[in-house]
Design a protein that fits this description.
Blueprint lengths: L15 E3 L5 H5 L4 E2 L5 H4 L16 E2 L2 E5 L13 H5 L17 E3 L6 E3 L9 H5 L1 E3 L13 E4 L5 E2 L9 H24 L13 E3 L1 H4 L16 E2 L7 H4 L1 H8 L14 E5 L3 E3 L9 E3 L4 E4 L11 E3 L11 H4 L2 H21 L3 H5 L2 H13 L15
Parallel strand pairs: 1-16
Antiparallel strand pairs: 2-11, 3-9, 4-8, 4-10, 5-6, 7-8, 12-15, 13-14
The structure holds flavin-adenine dinucleotide (FAD).
Flavin-adenine dinucleotide binds next to strand 1 and helix 10.
Amino acid sequence: MDDRTGKRIILKAPWFIDATEKGDLLKLGNVEYVLGAEGQNQTGEPNAPEQPDPENVQAFNLCFLLEYIDGENFTIEKPANYDYWSSYTPNISPPWPGPLFSLTYTHPMTLEPRTLPFDPLDQDGWWAYRQVINHNNFETGFYRGPISCINWPQHAYLEGKLVDEPEEVVQHHLKQAAELNMSLIYWLQTEAPRPDGGHGWPGLRLRGDIFDTEHGMAKHAYIREARRIKAKFTVLEQHVGTEARMHETGLSEEEVRAYEFDDSVGIGAYRIDLHPSTKGNNYIDISSLPFQIPLGSLIPQRVRNLLPACKNIGTTHITNGCYRLQPVEWNIGESAGAFAAYCKNNGKEPHQVYDDMESIREFQQALMDLGVRLQWPQDKVHAL
Ligand SMILES: Cc1cc2nc3c(=O)[nH]c(=O)nc-3n(C[C@H](O)[C@H](O)[C@H](O)COP(=O)(O)OP(=O)(O)OC[C@H]3O[C@@H](n4cnc5c(N)ncnc54)[C@H](O)[C@@H]3O)c2cc1C
């Protein structure tokens, strides 16, 4: 269904690639997929919850841009639901240190309370974390002050998910997320502690004109966790997590490497970085090793003409935490595109390639010719 026209459209093509934020083509194409957390009883992953829960996904954030103009007052009217959000404390475990609207949050790695300063004139702390504009670099007058893209735990939306929900539920959560944002802005303008002992920064204003949306927020929510294909091969914490690998191999932290995939189609490196989730988990932020992207994680178990090209590959709730990041998703997308081209040019289906080591090697060579790295320098070089 085309959202803009309400018309039903049928697309026919020999190949489909899904790089949507929520894995929408998986649903539309009846591709078997997983959503939410797998259970430890299924994957054996040390950091997985005991039982699977498809409702348990990482919070989304509806990001927005704030500009700061010193000496001016842009204080908005107190939002109707401000009292609710300003006293809101996430119900998660291990416990959040207090109300969400605070400069203190849970340190993702230690899970201890951690306070960062907030000062839009400072080069440190919450503001500088994602400052995107220094107005001094522009002469147009369009920017009158510095601008920061707010993507913080203080407006992580934990009250529900956006994937596999009826449209009215999705719209309800998006509306609530926008209201949460407005309350956070009001809190920053009026109550946030200042380094000089005062409270609030009235010179902050929402730059909704830049996104050009009705509510002034980003056009789309930041989705950390989408539908994932049920793949020929699923990457587990035991393949990439530092401690899990040390446990599996008996090697020390200095010696241990991620599992080497014979069918590697790329590489990535990022901590397993799970944000607080809709079913009550606080951060799960654990060390991982520089890893590879196995071809098997790009191949659906049954469907033969659709490839995933972003965070919708065969990972788990846990390993999504290190495959969902920018350079990794780009590598996945490039390799998925190259794979479709390889299959088309050679008259082969993805499953046929996957079942034949010679074809895998030929495809890996094609990737290397394109400049895609298949292994980290420190990995043991296998016969590619
Ligand atoms: C607010 C925010 C903060 C982030 N922070 C970080 C961070 O700190 N560090 C980090 O590493 N990563 C971060 N990420 C993740 C990072 O931005 C993404 O991993 C990256 O943008 C993915 O790039 P991509 O080109 O694969 O996909 P995208 O940028 O999503 O591009 C895919 C494009 O393909 C289109 N598309 C998809 N399927 C189809 C189809 N079937 N037909 C036609 N078009 C299609 C989509 O509409 C889209 O335009 C963040 C993301 C957001 C939104």
